[in-house]
Design brief:
The structure is a single chain. Helix 3 runs antiparallel to helix 4 and helix 8 crosses helix 9. The chain is 52% helix and 12% strand. The chain has a domain of 150 residues.
Amino acid sequence: MDYFITQLKVSKRGSASVPWGEVNRESPSEVLLVINKNATLDQLKDDWTIYHEFSHLLIPYDAGDERWLSEGLASYYQNIVQARAGMFDEQKMWQKLYEGFERSRKQTSHSHQTLSYLSDNMENNHNFMRIYWSGALYWLKADIALRQLNNGSSLDNVLLKLKQCCFRDPLSASAIIGQLDTLTNSQIFTQLFAEFSASLKMPPYNALLHSLGVQQKLGNITLNNDTRLANLRMAIYLNNLNSR
């Protein structure tokens, strides 16, 4: 059995409820949260950081390369986990994802450099929005593609299989992608990985969101349950593996 420890430290700097968080992948794994001593309990409960940090532990990844993959997974699931836990509804979940994608689209200062290069040099270029939210879109596209296989597959269950086989193995990003394709008997992860790694800007997302019934007007998201992939959108929110 894997055990996880949450360690709390108090910060006197910054106005955020949780100014900082990080994962230590020793055994047992540890999530460190630096909290604002003036934050209320409600503010701490509403903060996204703990959901983001624990989501890093969904893959056996040491963030040594292609960090957009790990940060993207954590950015994708931080919103889904909060919604599934009842912190907010499905509409707000997709609003938060859409706003993240928009922040990525608008960060164009290094559009001559690939996502892979930016990710490996993120401390220097500070293109965090493009790195994190391009990565989140990668996992959304993979999740939808798995559910469209109509064999009960989803990102949720393939990540569980990955944990069961390989959580304590020190795997590179490409090794994780290869293992995920093996577990799903597909090329979904490898093909998307090649596309996203070489991207020079945030890949397109509006058409996918529209097919899911995630519609926006003036930046405000509404949900339409009559679109082609609306059932997959609802399945993601409900943690439902049914993709039909």
